[in-house]
Design brief:
By secondary structure, the chain is mainly alpha-helical. It has six helices and three strands, in the order αααβααββα. One of its GO terms (molecular function) is DNA-binding transcription factor activity.
């Protein structure tokens, strides 16, 4: 643990119990990095549109491209990024690849964010 420093002039007292509690609840660096990467992926409007589409139905690249009015190449590029981050998964059926959300956690995260931005 780092020593406590008082660089802000908000108060002259460090609340040791609170600081200790927060430090004990701190995430490990790998979890911090992985979570930040998920939010970064969700920070791109194109990927948000893809996630929204896949929250409705499993889809192939050509259907996604048509639904989102994008090229198959652009959609494929985004799908590759989302797959590498375990946000979506691929199912092969013969020569076709179908994409869907990786699990319910991604759907919950997406729906919670959507609810937040549409809540008035």
């Amino acid at each position: 643990m780092q020593p406590l420093e008082t660089t802000d002039s908000c108060c002259n007292v460090i609340h040791e119990d609170t600081v200790t509690q927060v430090r004990e609840a701190a995430m490990d660096e790998q979890a911090v990095t992985d979570l930040a990467a998920i939010f970064a992926a969700l920070g791109d409007p194109t990927r948000v549109r893809i996630i929204r589409a896949l929250s409705v139905s499993e889809m192939c690249v050509c259907d996604l491209a048509a639904a989102l009015e994008m090229t198959q190449s652009a959609v494929s590029h985004q799908l590759r990024l989302l797959r590498n981050m375990r946000i979506i998964k691929r199912r092969k059926s013969g020569r076709m690849n179908y994409y869907s959300l990786d699990d319910e956690h991604i759907l919950t995260l997406f729906e919670t964010g959507l609810h937040h931005v549409t809540h008035r």
